[in-house]
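Researcher: Here's the sequence for the chain we discussed earlier.
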Amino acid sequence: MGADETLDLFPERAARTLELHAPLAERMRPRRLEELVGHEALLAPGRPLHTLLQGPSLPSILLWGPPGSGKTSLAWILGERADARMVPLSAVTAGVPEIRKAVESARRTRLRTLLFIDEIHRLNKAQQDALLPPVEVGTVTLIGATTENPSFSVIAPLLSRCRVVVLEALSLAALESVIDRALADPERGLGRTPLEVPEDARRALIRASQGDARRLLGTLEAAASIHLASARRALPLDLETVAAAVGRDALRHDRDGEEHFNVVSALIKSLRSSDPDAALHYLARMVEAGEDPLYVARRLVIFASEDVGNADPAALPLALAAHQAVERIGMPEGRIPLAQAVTYLACAPKSNAAYQALGRALEDLTAHGPLPVPKHLRNAPTKLMRELDYGKDYVYAHGERDAFVAAENLPDALRGRVYYEPTQRGREVELAERLAVWRERRRRALESGGPAGDDD
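Model: Thanks. This is the structure I predict for it:
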């Protein structure tokens, strides 16, 4: 073997080969664009995939979509249509040396090279940096597949050099088509078996797949294996066999990924919209997916103050009690106080007036800086401080009617500023009425120039 041959680690045209005992999902992987289901809208004239396929050259692209949506299949199909040499790498096992070897091989070949990196979000920054020069000059055309939002998982320089194509989870109709193809294909699928899958079994298989074609075919293959080995093999596939093949559903939820933030966002926004039913749905998803229950409880505490606030002052202690209960009793019982808190917060009157008021105060702080504290509010523990009028004219509120003092307590540059504006919801109605009276009394007293405590 010559020196040149030892450097070329990849064949001139990589071909997809099936292992002897490849699973059904791998055997049924689409080989032509016509076999790819669920992305017809992307392939319509003028849409991203159609444009890419019709163009003179294929740009570097990132295929972003949930598991089993067809990213890997589409990458290979694009490679076939581009008449290019496909070099597949997995980010799980590939590092900088493997990337450099692939690039070096691409430099030496006369064929156009597509470098396909599955799960590209798993590459660290240094590994992604290694891709920049060869992608920039066109040594390789990168096709990356990822289940994570590229905005968070791909470095900005590499992201700017790629087109992002978003693949959605497969629809019910697409998943039905996947089952039909597997049952009809005698070579790669189950077409040679006497398996019959009635409508109820199909629905159960599709429901368990969560839009993932790979999971769907894996479950179908397991159910077929169980069914055809039983005494009921001549009968249609039943729900009991499907349930045995499915096992316990593992919900798609990544604590550090986009789906985590999507579900958390949906929970908070459902609470804010006063929709306890939707909020319970998203709570159930988080709990069942194994989300940290204390994380959920902390978000509820924040919501109780930020979004319910003084419209229902009981919301915050209830949320804190739920957090404490989860911390003390653990799971699975901890889901009960979480459900109580979620339903209470969803049904509570809403006000973010306190949160908004703080924001306005912070804006003034940014604009004016730390202004001098008015002298009547300053502490005066020493003789010198008293001689400098620290604490002068301070009026002790508990000695006044309604414990109210009409003095202006803001720094002079902010005199008259109003930050807190209670809503007309819940307990804030009472606060708004009381505050309106106090503000009017303070205004009249300051205009009259009378003593701070004399507002009548």
